[in-house]
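Hi F.,

I've been meaning to write this up properly since the lab meeting, where we talked about keeping a consistent format for the predictions we share between groups. The idea is simple: the sequence comes first, exactly as it goes in, then the structure tokens exactly as they come out, then a line or two of notes. No screenshots and no reformatting. I'm using this chain as the first example so we have something concrete to point to.
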Amino acid sequence: MEIKIKKLQKILKIKFNDIYLLIQAITHKSYNAKKNYEILEFLGDRVLGLTISNKLIELYPNERVGILDKKFSNLVNKNICCDIGKKLKLNKFVLVGNSKRKILKIENKIISDSCESIIGAIYLDKGFKIAKEFILNNWKDYLMISGETIIDAKTKLQEFSLKKFKSLPEYKLISNTGPRHEPYFKVGVKIKNTKFIYSNGTSKKNAEQSAANMLLKNLDKLWEYRIKVTYYH
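Output, unedited:
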């Protein structure tokens, strides 16, 4: 364990005063139900949010709040945290499972959560300044392209539904299967005049995004068909 922690600190470029904080930050609840990273993840999420919010205001002082909010969502979502977690090789360090059941594959959600929990641990061990530096250093590539606001599938579908029908999309959770460390969600979504479209994901949010994306594609195909029919007539 000592060698493992030294390697992780080298990757993070941070030497912890309290090694046990770092160990807690990489401990999943399937490994230790009482002393795990959940509280550090909660804290790290807030430190990340504050840092990115402040940086966006600094980069785009004249931007509308609605646009800043979309940029913020694109920068702090689970997919970005997972990408950064993989770059930090957290999947090689996270402690999951127990002696009776060895888990070989680390799910993306666990990597994402661990990324946030490490931010929380850095904040408690080193203070806000160092935590902020860690975040900005690891998020710099994403911040560089934040000038282009990418709207996610759920937001696009919501905007379309409100504009066309003045109603929100309807999401329905169909199933939640798998063990705690490897959940699998099936979700359906529909808007007015459509049937439910179903998709899956390792989190409810991911499944909803996937379902929304599939429905948008179906709507695009339907719209193209209607244009062709109108044209030929």
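Notes:
The chain has two domains: 2-144, 153-232.
The two ends are 72 Å apart (CA to CA).

If this format works for you, I'll send the rest the same way.

G.
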